[in-house]
Amino acid sequence: MEHEDVDTSGAEDTPNNNEAELDDMKKRLKEMEDEAAALREMQAKVEMQMGSTQDPASEAAAQANREEVDSRSIFVGNVDYACTPEEVQQHFQTCGTVNRVTIRTDKFGQPKGYAYVEFVEAEAVQEALLLNESQLHGRHLKVTAKRTNIPGLKPYRARRANPFMRARSPIIAPYSFSPYGYGKVPRFRMPMRYSPYF
Fold first, then answer.
1. How far apart, in whole angstroms, are the C-alpha atoms of residue 54 and residue 31?
2. Any idea what DSSP says for residue 17?
3. Pick from 122, 138, 81, 87: nearest CA to 105
4. What is this structure's pTM?
């Protein structure tokens, strides 16, 4: 057998090189773990600010708080576009202490024509309902108790029938036997477009 000459001069450095590479890899792994922990912490902060990670107990408490606030609030419709929250507050001041007036606006800042009035006490809502059809800026206000919005629940609205579309009915063949022979079935297709002639 022939022995091959192996260069052993690099073999002495190999354990030191391996240890240096291993230390370098450990440093990089530590840096990556630190970055991942920082990202997790930042994500948790953002989720807490957005309110997406609420536990069911705090969510139920928030819903109960919303219902309690809504029981002290009224919806005011047909509000004049030039009306200010101070004028709406003065109009409902006789009913009780007004906590907040919110006039809803569109994305351009123009009023939508309705407002919400929140009172300090719940008894003021009944007094405010008596002001239904009262006038403010020459317009009759529509005053109702504010309903609590339930997220994800939309009221069902049935689809209206289109008077321009005719009802589809199955087409019945005028003959009882098949003129196409045994096993062949005539194909009756509905027209692809609306035709007013039949």
1. 31
2. H
3. 81
4. 0.51
